[in-house]
Amino acid sequence: MKRGEGHSDPVIGWGMSKKLKNQWLTWLVVALVVAVGAIAFRVSTVGTEIPLTLVSREGVDFTIFRLFPHRIFPTLFFQRPASDQTKRSIWEWRPELGNTQNDIEKGRQKGGAYFLNPGAAVTVRVSIRETGKDVVLRAEPASLFGPTIGRNLVPSGGEADPHLFLRTQGLDEWPILPIGISHVRVSVLQVEEPLIAEQVSFAVEPPITLKGVAKSYVPLLLFWPWPLYAVVVAFWGMLLLVKTRKGRR
Q1: Do 153 and 226 fall within a single domain?
Q2: In Å, how far from its chain's centre is CA 233?
């Protein structure tokens, strides 16, 4: 028999055949892709919530990480009233936070939304060190009801009428986080009674939520079922390990 005759799968380093070694290399690449994708997806689904005291000229500093640029739409969350009061209509839970009932005709005339009860005014400034941009945001009436009550923050158009919230601001008016770690400061500019000195939460939603996905983060949706991928990769690795042990006997 000639040398090498009858051996269709030659054995090379670590006692593995060339074919098996290529399978291990393929598995390693796939495992790395799944691991990196899963980490990126998980990081992009974690929001940020910072305690903030509503006192004029008070502020809070924090850092936030993004894989890609992300335009943020912050919300202020307030405590719910005592449990016995929640039996009433949600609009009566905390009337000082306002409600979204509005005068459609007057809003159309003025070019925005005209809320009948805008709630006690709250205005904050969001400063991002890395971009050097400051954005002034004001709280809309309460529109999110659950364990807490949420008031969305929108760019201030300098409206003189507290009932009016202009809709002319473009996306460029909203704060945007660059790639990497951003140093953010939120400062209270204005707060009206009876909200003065109240402890609230300043919340920033992550780029990926059940409600929507930021445009630059859409490719990461491929890793939504990453636990399934991890199980498949682990099972594949176990099979390769069994084949490797059999080949060494």
Answers
A1: no
A2: 28
